[in-house]
Amino acid sequence: MDRSEGPAVRRRDVLGGLAAGTALATALDANAAGVAADKRKRYVAVGVGSRNRMYQQALWGPHKTHGELIAACDTNPGRLDYVAQQAIKAGAKPPRPYLAADFDKMLRELKPDAVIVTTPDAFHDDYVVRALDAGCDVITEKPMTTTAAKAQRILDAVKRSGRHIRVTFNYRYSPFRSQVKELLMSGEIGDILSVDFQWLLNTVHGADYFRRWHSNKTISGGLMVHKATHHFDLVNWWLSDLPVSVAATGKREFYTPEMARRFGLQGPHQRCHTCPEKAECSFFFDMAADPGLKALYLDNEKYDGYFRDQCVWRPEISIEDTMNVIVGYSGGTTLSYSLNAFNAWEGYHIAFNGTKGRLEHSLVEQAGVAGASNQDEGDRIKTRIVPMRGNPRDIVPETGSGGHGGGDAVMLADIFDPNAPKDPLQRAADERGGAASILIGIAANRCFETGEPVKIGELVTGLDWPDYPRMPGHKDPVAMPPRMQRA
Questions:
Q1: What are the angstrom distances between the C-alpha of 184 and each of 128, 143, 252?
Q2: Taking CA atoms, which of 151, 168, 176, 458 is between 20 and 30 Å from 404?
Q3: CB–CB of 386/190 below 8 Å?
Q4: How high is the pLDDT of residue 373?
């Protein structure tokens, strides 16, 4: 049939049809977007200081299709305003603001899927337990909490509620630390009989713990809990084992009023911002010079009176700066660990001594002030295998980009991406791994006070074995090493 014989089609009908089709497509797209948005997990955050920014940026950036930060809760209204401004800059919907007193109200009104807890450490247990009892899963920063009694509260709440906890041990996810785990799992050095672990904090990063709330042991648990929980968790996970006994000594001998005077200062004073000796003290910290820290803390201290730049020489500091710990493990391995917070460089040495040889691993970090902008991420990593009899060989370290040696991005994908692949290294940690790590530090703190060793089993009950990969066993056959060659 000739086209001219067909019905006349007017231009406005075509445009009308296009408009209707476009409207329908738009409606379908909007509906699809709504369905997609509905599938996203809904998160709320409590405690929106510098530690929370990693989660905000993940949900506003690479994981915005997987989850949404629908609310933020804090004691400081100025920080809540700052989070809203940052969300808008990121092109995201600002989270609804709630003051800390309205935490339970927030859970009732919004019914989130999960609560992200990044408050000061001693308050973790309160928010974790309340979230679990409200039917929410929990993502909590390390350390999970600070005392044995609080750890028991959390363990009991998990079993009572049937909900889940994720403790964010990003050190497990750093590619070079995952590589160490793979080497140990492979049996390259046999089964591990002892571990020597030395961690050093420099006078930039290390000093920073003594000017923040972390310097109050009742809030942070001291460096044995707040900082060393990372290190103890690494050893627990590297060994796939649980600690059973702890002996430890600790002291504060550097960050003291006496040391300030030995440096020729008249202080200590209250804080850096108003310090009359800022020109003379090389530990002076100019918080106003860092835009992020200024916006989060200096500009908002009028609301709560919290000074982020307290003097590191203050007499009321209650945490140690020099610590030594011996840990006995269920499988028989012994850990010798030290932490020093005023060293000339930042990083660690660790050596695993096995039935077939030794694995040595070290890291020199370019660490700066916690939460500050523009930090140098240039780390120097070395790993080598030393056979019991034979020539050592260097291992080319696996590396990544971004925070914590590339571990942050991998961990955040594991947390937020529902399609994240199954992990043969089982790097995800729950309340069991969270408890196992802090209980070493909690036991060490008790040793500092009493001078007596502590049994982990006396601190909590009902701590189940975490999910760890299988390691070479202490009863597995071991090949006889080759004879020593005479010179």
A1: 34, 25, 35
A2: 151
A3: no
A4: 55
- Torsions phi, psi of 362, nearest 5? -140, 155
Considering only 38-47, 159-168, 215-224, 457-466, which range has the smallest mean pLDDT? 38-47
Supply 421's token pair: 């692949």
Task: Extract the tokens encoding 165.
Answer: 């906890």
**CA 78 – CA 308 distance, rounded (Å):** 15
Closest among 380, 388, 390 to 352, alpha carbons compared: 388
CA–chain centroid gap for 396, Å, is 26
Q: What are the strands, taking DSSP E only, across 91-178?
A: 96-99, 114-117, 137-140, 165-167
CB 328 within 8 A of CB 334: yes
- The continuous run of DSSP H or E covering 13 comes out as helix 11-39
Runs of H (alpha helix) within 363-453 = 407-416, 431-450
The per-residue pLDDT for 9 is: 29
Gap between the Cα atoms of 414 and 75, Å rounded? 30
Distance CA 171, CA 110 (A): 32
Buried b (16+ CB within 10 A) or exposed e, 39-50: ebbbbbbbbbbb
Q: pLDDT tens for residues 80-115?
A: 999 999 999 999 999 999 999 999 999 999 999 999
Task: Identify the burial level of 351 via C-beta atoms within 10 angstroms of its C-beta, where 0-12 means exposed, 13-18 middle and 19 or more buried.
Answer: middle
Tokens of 33: 């977007």
Q: Is 247 within 8 Å of 325 (Cβ atoms)?
A: yes
Round the average pLDDT of the chain to a whole number and report it.
Answer: 90
Strand spans (E) along 40-182:
41-46, 67-74, 96-99, 114-117, 137-140, 165-167
Whether 16 has a pLDDT exceeding 90, the answer reads no
Maximum C-alpha span of the chain: 106
Dump pLDDT digits (tens) for 165-185: 999 999 999 999 999 999 999
| DSSP letter, residue 55 | H
Structure pTM? 0.89
Position 367 scores a pLDDT of 62
pLDDT at 372: 58
Environment class of residue 284 by beta-carbon count within 10 Å: exposed (0-12), middle (13-18) or buried (19+)?
Answer: middle
